[in-house]
Amino acid sequence: MPPSWTGSHEDTLRRLREICLSFPETTERLSHGAPSFFVRDKSTFVNVWLEGHHANKFPHLWCAAPQGAQDDLVDQDPDSFFKPPYVGHRGWLGVRLDALLDWDDLDAICEDAYRTVAPRGLIALLDNPENQV
Among 122, 4, 130, which residue's Cα sits nearest to residue 58? Predict the structure, then answer.
């Protein structure tokens, strides 16, 4: 069952918060009216649109993505992934939360987004959490 249908929007946001805030030095605040997650309170890596946004009237997130991932995923599974407005030209990925993705998929997508914008030192902490001070 898709994540957004396993509970309320609040449950979906709670689970996404658990994922995104588990990465080193992340914060959350509203940006453009959407819950958004930042690395070191500066670089956005995920925006969550539970009520939809513009023409996309379904729950979804926008996230940073490694180079080439947007094209590959949109081509392979256009029912789950799309090119989001405003940030799609920079390679960001739109992810439908009402698609047949599971929480493990969303965890991996959010981690890739974090790795795309985080500095090397924070990625090293993510890879070796025992090195955290």
Answer: 4
CB atoms within 10 A of CB 13: 16
DSSP-derived pairing of the beta strands 43-49 and 81-82:
unpaired
Q: Exposure pattern of 45-84 as b/e (b: 16+ CB <10 Å)? A: bbbbbbeebeeeeebbbbbbbeeebbeebbeeeeebbbbb
Report pLDDT digits (tens) over 57-75: 788 999 999 999 999 999 9
What are the structural domains of the chain? 3-122 (3.90.1150.30)
pTM more than 0.70:
yes
